[in-house]
Amino acid sequence: MIPEIGHFALILALCMAAVQGSLPIYGAAVGSSTLMSVAKPAARGQFLLVLLAFCCLGYAFAAKDFSVLYVASTSNSQLPLHYRLAAIWGAHEGSLLLWVFILSIWMVAVSFFSTHLPEAMRARILGVMGLVSMGFLLFMLTVSNPFERLIPAAFDGRDLNPLLQDPGMVIHPPMLYMGYVGFSVAFAFAIAALLGGTLDAAWARWSRPWTTVAWCFLTVGVAMGSGWAYYELGWGGWWFWDPVENASFMPWLAGTALIHSLAVTDKRGGFKAWSVLLAIFAFSLSLLGTFLVRSGILTSVHAFATDPKRGLFILVFLTVVIGGSLILYAWRAPRVGLGGGFSLVSREGTLLGNNVLLVAALGSVLLGTLYPLFLDALDLGKISVGPPYFDTVFVPLMTPAIFLMGIGPLLQWKQASLPELAIRLRWAFGVSVATALALPVVLGKWTPLISLGLLLALWIATTTVVNVRERVSHLVGNSLVSCLATLPRAYWGMVLAHCGIAVFIVGVTMVKGFEVEQDLRMNVGETATIGGYTFRFDGTEQYKGPNYIAARGTFRVSQDGRDVTVMYPEKRRYTAQNQTMTEAAISPGLLRDLYVSLGEPLEDGAWSVRLYHKPFIDWIWGGCLIMAAGGVLAISDRRYRLAWRRKEAEVPATTQMARQTVS
Amino acid sequence: MNRFLLPFAIFVVVVGFLAVGLRLNPRELPSPLVGRPAPDFSLPQLHDQEKVFSSSDLKGKVWLLNFWASWCGGCKDEHPVLIHLAQSGEVPIYGMDYKDRREEALAWLREWGNPYPVIAVDESGRVGINYGVYGVPETYVIDKAGVIRYKQIGPLDADTVKGKILPLVRELQNK
User: Fold this and answer.
1) B8/A308 CB distance under 8 A
2) Number of domains comprising chain A
3) Of A315, A382, A579, which is closest to B73 when you measure between CB atoms?
4) How buried is A2 (Cβ within 10 angstroms: 0-12 exposed, 13-18 middle, 19+ buried)?
5) What is the widest separation between alpha-carbon atoms in chain A?
6) How do residues A385-413 score in pLDDT, each as one tens digit?
7) CATH code assigned at A76
8) Is there a domain that residue A632 lies in?
9) Shortest CA gap A311–chain B (Å)
10) CA of A647 to nearest chain B CA: how many angstroms apart?
11) Model confidence, pTM
């Protein structure tokens, strides 16, 4: 009964989405306030219906209702409750439901935080989001219904893929989808602006916080996915350039470019058509990512069960949404007009350079991801494009981008002087180069790439210091602290996000340059030393988990005779699918991770073992979190709080009084 | 041309490729072994360790070699197809129990049924390496002269058996 309620709620949500996607947009075109006012309640109603469907599916999982096909195929009676709930998005149908659910959350958020927008704009935005939602609901109801029954019911479920039975599964997909789907807001803003013909600085100001929030979620989501792969897959790698990873990375690149381009549109009125195009790109790439994962068109470690019917549906949907918006763009954008002119050496100039490089990087990732498909389609053979290609194209593109990132914030808008800039930055440049050349030698190994990586990180750090110092010296204040506090939070957000990039680069450089890896056979009691740490293998013992049996190894780690830690890597066999999993043991640290994973059991209690010493690897994810924190700081800026308060003032005085008495 | 149309034009090309790509199968990898003699092996049998199963015993017959394991999820998917094919009697399917434990493999067969007349045990995976196994399940069609004629990566489904395997087997048997 409960699953049928969920199914029915989805059908009603589809009807609601159809209303939301048609009437308000039509109303905005003919200027009917009545029709436009449908948008808000429709969005909220749709949210409640999708929430109901989501809860119904959650209930089916919690209650182990194996008469629902989806529940039976992705969970098991032995599976703990939190993983049963995470199994909602453990496969295709449920993750679509999560997609739609998150889209409806964004719609509700727009309906609440858009009171200061003109009514026609809001109607169009919600209308466009309604249309997107309609597409996904149709997709679910026609070819991937999560509520489909299994009659007769299964005796027990087939269990969630053991790879997914991990705390990362509970949080990574929702974060990633918040980011992916969050770009639908920026997309809807862009389409609404194209429809209305009002592409101005105000549009950019409204879009900015939404884009930044989505970008923060996506940053954290991608970082978590990478961290998860690192500790779960047991290969010690953190990024594999797998098609599905690329699918999440491409919207991130487009979103990063969009944030910077919107800043120019907001402050200077320039880059308007470009910002719109990037907003379309960012969301289109999210959709393309969905297509690549769901259609089985490319092979990937993330490959879900594939079905050509589903692939075809998404392709048609993709064509309608992206093709439609690009035609709209081609039709309306020429009338947008250009912003103010600027010289190449100016803040606009560096931001333009940064945008071009980011889009070029995006293009090369897209090409690398689709290249095997292109060749195959042209019958030129089967190939796979791997890390060598991506590493080769990525470093040369990112190096100038990061160089520009250092100087961009220091330049004036419109026109700046190059010689003056050189004088302001000579110390930053000298210190960066000298340190980058010397530091690897001190650390005991010099290669050009290590120096380059350190140079880039140091360049960001030193130019940031110069920038903050100059900013402060322009202010008249009593103390340094009060001076720093007067700078707007949006500025600090940028500084923080850029420092996050520096931290990230340090992590990547140090891991690539200095990691030590050893594959060896270890007998019980035997020791091995890597990176100054001595590992002693004390044998394995059997134990039984809730839905698996495991061999757990014990490794005592010491450094210079002092005990550091004890590590317990595991080899698990999940009974329902009879699948073995490697659970690596990681001892994290600010300056290094120790990583042990068990290979295969050998005779007499010996095992093949893989040991790693990974310096600075946690900086990779730390850098991403700092970037996201920068984004959060930027949207907490005063002007957004002011906008919020202005809205508050419009609320009738009686309501405000009532609130005060309550509090 | 209107430069604002350029993004749309690029998109149309990409969609064209995606549409074609949708009908291709990325798992259909060409094997350098197709058309070459199947690597010889002599391995203990699963049901009777004392006996040896040797590929040379099958010269003059058309047969399928199926790599499987009890730990492999895809093998369970293709299992009904194999059982059905075995029951039709068109072609014998010989099993290769790949990197598996004997008791578990036997238990698995007891539970799901056994389509194989004889199963060899490739515990170390050495034969798998000779055959270039990417991952189980994989199935090879081998002709009377002991030459590999077709390689299926991943689970067999009823369509592939009907559309590719059986026509090929019949053609080879009539040679």
Assistant:
1) no
2) 3
3) A579
4) middle
5) 82
6) 778 888 888 889 999 999 999 998 888 88
7) 1.20.120
8) no
9) 7
10) 38
11) 0.82
